[in-house]
Amino acid sequence: MSNNTGPKSSSKNSIKKTTTAKEVKGTKSTPITIDLNILKVLINERTLIPLLRILKKNKELHTRELLITMGSWGYGQSLLKRATNLGLIERKVKKDKSPGRGKPRIYNSLTNKGREVVVLADKVGYGK
To answer: From CA 7, how far away is CA 5, in angstroms rounded?
Structure first.
């Protein structure tokens, strides 16, 4: 009797196949010039990226449409306030066609700083 503590080897399974990884073609990296403040916003306020992407896609939405599109009311409203305070979103009051019917709608749109944050997020693949 032999005390063989190693793996059992049989004549059929004794040869193991090894695979080698394919070499990846070297791609040239291109430097990106960015504003440090925009990078800080991108890193610290990552949760705002989906909101900014919706506004980039739709150009301008009133608050109710924006929150419905996001699928979030309470949390979405807090994100909207934070983005406004950071200067990423601009809010404009526009009068409705029929005066005296409820409150006027507030339309939300991206500022230039907000567009830069979204473009940078898309370049680096952030939050997809």
So the answer is: 7
Which residue has tokens 């504003």?
35
Q: How many CB atoms lie within 10 A of CB 81?
A: 12
CA distances from 93 to 17, 21, 80, 96, 106 (A): 69, 58, 15, 10, 4
pLDDT of residue 108: 93
**Confidence bin at 7 (pLDDT 50/70/90):** low
- Encoding tokens for residue 32? 């990106």
The sheet with strand 60-62 has its strands ordered as: 60-62, 105-110, 89-94
Residue 116 · residue 38 · CB < 8 Å: yes
The residue count of the chain comes to: 128
Report how far residue 65's alpha carbon sits from residue 78's, in angstroms, rounded to the nearest whole number: 16
Domains and CATH numbers, the chain: 36-124 (1.10.10.10)
pTM as predicted = 0.67
Tokens 């608050």, residue? Answer: 63
